[in-house]
Amino acid sequence: MGKYGLDVTNPADFNLLTQPISSPSVAARGFVKPYSTFPSGASLAQALRPFPQFNGVNDQYERDGNTWYDALQVKVTKRFGYGLSGGLGYTWAKDLGTVSSTGTYTTAIPIQDPTLPPKSQKSYLAIDEPQMLNFYFNYEVPRAGFAQSGWKAALFSGWTLDGIFHYQSGFPIEVPTSTSTLDSVTFANQTASNSNYVFANRVAGQPLFLHSLNNHSVNPYTTFFLNPAAWANPAPGTYSTSKPYYGDFRGPRYPSEQLGFGKAYTIKEGVKFSLRADFFNVFNRWAYPGLNVGSPFTTPQHNSDGSIANGFGYLGNSISNAGGNFAPRSGEIVARILF
Predict the structure, then answer these.
(1) Which residues, listed in sequence order, are joined to residue 134 by a DSSP beta bridge?
(2) How far apart are CA 197 and CA 239, in angstroms?
(3) How deeply is 194 buried, as exposed, middle or buried, from its count of CB atoms within 10 A (0-12, 13-18, 19+)?
(4) pLDDT tens readout for residues 196-211
(5) Is 277 exposed, middle or buried (0-12, 13-18, 19+ CB in 10 A)?
């Protein structure tokens, strides 16, 4: 805007950019329609765009992004011995990039200041998981000394125990947006669903969370989890200094445990009996569903029953969806006769 003698950090100039091209105040500054059929109701900011006849130009699947993946991966395998076998895998990783995966394709991470090169906006990706641990085991229970033959051998021998365990960090939470309307005159980061994509600035020294998302001892209907004091609006006419994601601003971790046992018994030649029991989510784990992040500048609102209706970083009535993240503890027992 500088080449037109306008400064978006100046409130008067910012307001002028939002005025229609037909406004007397716009004409007083010497601005006219870029072409004769330009809509009279369109703003001065639109008139000053390089191609004012277009509201936007979509560019899909452009291959100009970068991603960086660095990891330490450890794998340990216990070969079968003394009835025991198993394995362990651990990954300590960092996913960074200027594009972020949405599951089926990638999209550009919003660039706050369009005058900066895309690589300057290198940030954590939405799929970043810094730590992941998996391990499993299978154990054949030794035959007891009193179960060497007869019905005791049939009942107490041949049992196996096994388990599968998975633990992972939570995914990053996108930085909340500010109340800035800078994008209304710069047209940066506008989408069909969100015309304001100026992030809030992170406030140094302020905790991001009021309560940990891994702590289930609070009432989720009435508890705010995110700290609004950790975020501030950028100065008028300026972009945010925040990156889209931070390594310490994450959702809940996801543990998962599965245990099972079974045995097989040969009734006679060509006929076998097997029994198998599996138990899923054995410790009845669960995690809070997705937060209603909202805006740190929104005034909190409550329903008549005391639950949160609106605000920053709350669950409210969406806690009823927690079962979607973790099914309740369950088990199944299967008996088979093979012949």
Answers:
(1) 89, 166
(2) 10
(3) exposed
(4) 578 999 999 999 999 9
(5) middle
* Cα–Cα dist 72/88, whole Å: 14
What is the radius of gyration, based on Cα positions, of the chain? Answer: 30
β-partners of residue 258 are 164, 280
Cβ(313)–Cβ(224) below 8 Å: yes
Question: Can you read off the two tokens belonging to residue 216?
Answer: 């289930």
- Cα 87 from Cα 71, distance rounded (Å): 19
Distance between alpha carbon 168 and the CA centroid of its chain, in Å?
A: 13
Q: CA distances (Å), 110 to each of 30, 196, 204, in order?
A: 34, 11, 22
Distance, CA of 199 to CA of 111 (rounded, Å): 10
Please determine, for residue 3, whether its predicted confidence score (pLDDT) is greater than 70: yes
**Beta-bridge partners for 71:** 93
Q: From CA 177, how far away is CA 105, in angstroms rounded?
A: 24
CB 68 within 8 A of CB 75: no
pLDDT in tens, 115-139: 778 778 788 988 899 999 999 999 9
Distance between alpha carbon 211 and the CA centroid of its chain, in Å? 18
Contact call for residues 124 and 109 (beta carbons, < 8 A): no
Beta strands per DSSP E along the chain: 67-81, 84-97, 99-101, 106-108, 123-124, 131-140, 159-168, 201-202, 231-232, 254-268, 271-280, 301-302, 308-310, 330-338
Average pLDDT over residues 163-191: 86
Beta bridge partners, 87, equal 77, 136
Question: How would DSSP label each residue in 250-290?
Answer: B---EEEEEEEEEEEEEEETTEEEEEEEEEESTT-------
3-state class of 94 per DSSP?
strand
